[in-house]
Amino acid sequence: MKLPIVAYGDPVLRKKAEEIDEDYPNLKETIADMFETMYAARGVGLAAPQVGLPIRLFVIDASPFAEDDGDEKGDPSLKDFKKVLINPIIVEETGEKWGFNEGCLSIPDISEEVMRPSHVLINYLDENFEEQEVQLSGLAARIVQHEYDHIEGKLFIDKLGPLKKAMLKGKLESISKGMVRVGYKMRFPQPKKKR
Questions:
Q1: 66, 74 Cβ separation under 8 angstroms
Q2: What residues in the chain have per-residue pLDDT under 50?
Q3: Pfam families given for it (predicted)?
Q4: What domains can be seen in the chain, in order of their start residue?
Q5: What is the pLDDT of residues 17-58, one digit of tens each?
Q6: Quick one: which of 163, 171, 181, 182 is 20 to 30 A from 37 by CA?
């Protein structure tokens, strides 16, 4: 089932998510719904807070980055890079920081160059609650770092400089008010009631 993606401005996107255990209700369905939602929105990663769930879970399928896209050179190592990460912990981020244009399904129509370390070592539980630890580089590392930020209550725009943030203020306010057109279902923050 496709779930609505939570738009910028919703408090769930700013909350540090909680760990879950194997008894989390309907976990397999939640994971399947998150993949379906991500594919429908043409994303490569989706964190649980983006569908309104304050839990430490995200899904990734970086295969779209494996193909050459005209002027963009593809990364064949991402062809089968599909993962479910539960209760992940970034052990270390290393390597030179490099820039890449990032976007976010919760912040549609905005993409900006974000600097991130080129390597990440991450420990997590897979969908069978088996512990995994993997060293990632390049785009795979970036996607994991972006989604990890979501479960920490952070967004890619937090990594931008003050001038860039100021220039995006109007667009961000429009998104939070639902004044944006996207090809997928979104849930916008409810305006605060006046007393």
A1: yes
A2: none
A3: Pep_deformylase
A4: 5-187 (3.90.45.10)
A5: 999 999 999 999 999 999 999 999 999 999 999 999 999 999
A6: 171
